[in-house]
TrEMBL record:
Domain Helix-turn-helix as annotated: residue spans: 6-54
InterPro entries: HTH_17, SinI_DNA-bd
Domain of life according to the entry: Bacteria
Identification of the protein by name: Helix-turn-helix domain-containing protein
NCBIfam families listed in its UniProt record: excise
Amino acid sequence: MRDDELLTVPEAMERLKVGRSTVYDLIRSRRLPSITIGRCRRIPARAVREYITNELEAAA
């Protein structure tokens, strides 16, 4: 996985093992940064990794 890779919502769902509404809730709450290109929502792969890291640190 490259740092500059942009993931679709379904790809982010697969990597996080969560549902569509959870991904959109994370985006809406600004816990998972994303960009919009045209009408398409994209999540940087780096942001998914950082989210996981932050959640692991918070749980420790």
